[in-house]
Here is the input.
Amino acid sequence: MLTPEAWTAEEEERTNAVLKGRRAKFYGPRPGVTTIRLIYSDMDLTQFFEFPWWDRFKPAVLPILQGVFEQYGLNPDRHVIRAQLNRVEPGGEIRPHVDQGIWATNAHRVHVPVVANADCSIFVRRHGAGKGRPHLPWRRLLLQEGFAYELNNRWQHRVVNEGSTDRVHLLVDWTDTGDRRREVLAPGQVCHEDGLLQGLGCRDWSQEEYLRALRRKMAGRARRRQAHGN
Here is the structure.
């Protein structure tokens, strides 16, 4: 299923839903990295989205998830909040970062190597806590095919592919609470990424429309806080 065209922007725009603005943001700090989005959520875990390619890859992905989730005694179709296939090309890298937001602090991150590469490593380290305390040293992890790994993505992490072949992982985020209702997106549907992440739904906002909608949301939240405080 992972044909060369599956990783292209043209195929994504034609048959999957698209996060507008994602490519410029994503490929800045992550050169040589491509993503196939399957399931996604907003930052606050209030809205959940099923991309058209979930149906395309579900016959291959769901048996993998079922094997993983048997260890937890959970149903993956009810507990998964995000799922994507992530490719790091030869020479590609994901620069040091920490995943943030309610979705990151409330979810578990699992990596399932689909195409492993002995020369592609993920490095993790815990942040130093408090003023003047340095980071701890990086720890190198080699993840192998045939295994699933739960990693703490609230620790700083980075990926470097020093090999001559691709590295492909299935990345899954899941929560202990289930029964997440997902909005099913249509092929070719365009979402403003920041709008989707801020809980404004999947709409093809212009930047000006997005900022106005975000201001309205923040003003409404402030009014509710004030009313609750009174």
Remarks:
- The longest strand covers residues 33-41.
- The chain has a mean pLDDT of 88.
- The chain is about 30% helix and 30% strand.
